[in-house]
Specification:
Blueprint lengths: L8 E4 L9 H20 L3 H15 L2 H9 L3 H8 L11 H9 L3 E5 L4 H11 L7 E3 L12 H11 L6 E5 L6 H5 L3 E5 L4 H4 L9 E3 L2 H13 L1
Parallel strand pairs: 1-2, 1-4, 2-3, 4-5, 5-6
Length: 223
């Protein structure tokens, strides 16, 4: 952990990192994706879900595949699929406390939309604690783990990669961060897509709990 003492920037993925109940949130998003594809392409739900899954695996987001093959309007898609109910998400006072104690700048980097991040962080009670959000629109709809949007994030927020840590629940999304000189942290999970490549050497640290990890950083910095 000593190498995290002088970290000046922390980049957080949103879904599956800022909160753990991925099924309850992304289950809704996934359902609405299927509905959107079914209506837009005039196919039944079964075929829509198959396309959704195939494009996700081939292009890293279903949206990317839909844009390539069907010229889908990305902003319309994002607005529709992220119109979900998050009332079940409770405020995370423990996470809020650790984020407040950090003297590092804090950013959210997501393959989703800015509105989705704002919705998530508001329900968690941490929406006022971040220095910036970089979403799929900012990345010109090029998703993680492509390296170009990460380079654009670095430029936009004027951060030094060597002074930055990136926290993800999808292991393979950490590879470009490591190439650019960042410290990389994988939040351990058993999702097939999340743990794929989690044994690779581009991951510096594996953690079980985000708040506990941030507490360790705060203790290190205070020492």
């Amino acid at each position: 952990m000593k190498e995290f003492k002088n970290i000046k920037n922390i980049i957080f993925d949103c879904d599956g990192v800022l909160y753990k109940d991925l099924d309850s949130v992304f289950g809704q998003v996934s359902k609405r994706m299927g509905e959107y594809i079914s209506k837009k392409l005039n196919v039944d739900l079964k075929e829509a879900k198959e396309l959704q899954r195939a494009y996700f695996h081939q292009y890293n987001t279903s949206l990317n595949g839909l844009m390539i093959h069907h010229k889908i309007n990305p902003n319309e898609f994002l607005k529709y699929v992220h119109d979900i109910n998050l009332d079940f998400l409770e405020k995370d006072e423990v996470l809020r406390e650790e984020l407040l104690n950090l003297d590092s700048k804090k950013f959210v980097y997501t393959n989703g939309s800015r509105d989705h991040v704002n919705n998530i962080t508001k329900h968690l009670g941490i929406d006022d604690l971040f220095d910036g959000i970089f979403d799929i629109v900012d990345g010109q709809f090029f998703p993680k783990p492509q390296i170009e949007p990460l380079k654009n994030l670095i430029k936009k927020f004027e951060i030094t990669p060597e002074e930055t840590v990136f926290i993800e629940d999808i292991a393979k999304n950490l590879e470009p961060a490591k190439k650019l000189g960042m410290k990389t942290v994988w939040l351990i999970n058993n999702e097939y897509w999340g743990k794929k490549d989690s044994d690779k050497d581009f991951i510096d640290l594996k953690i079980n709990n985000l708040s506990s990890f941030l507490k360790e950083i705060n203790i290190l910095k205070a020492a």
